[in-house]
Amino acid sequence: MTALTPDPLRVALWLATQGYAVHPLAPGLKVPIRGCGRCSPGTAERPNSAYVEHDGRACPCHANGRPCHGVLAATTDVDRITAWWARTPAAGVGVAAGPSGLVILDVDCHGGDAPTDPERLLPGIELPNDIAPGSVVDGRDVLALLVEARRATLPGSAPETLTVRTPSGGLHYWFRAPVGTQWRHGSGELGWQLDVRAGTSYAVAPGTVTRSGAYVALGDCRTVAELPVWLARDLDRTGHRIRPERPRVVLPWRSRRVGSGYVAAAVEAELRAVAEAQPGTRNETVNRAAFSLGTLCGAGRLDRGQVADVLADAARHAGLPDREAMAAIRSGLDAGGRHPRTLTGAAA
Ligand SMILES: [Zn+2]
Ligand SMILES: [Zn+2]
Question: pTM (2 decimals)?
Answer without folding.
Answer: 0.69
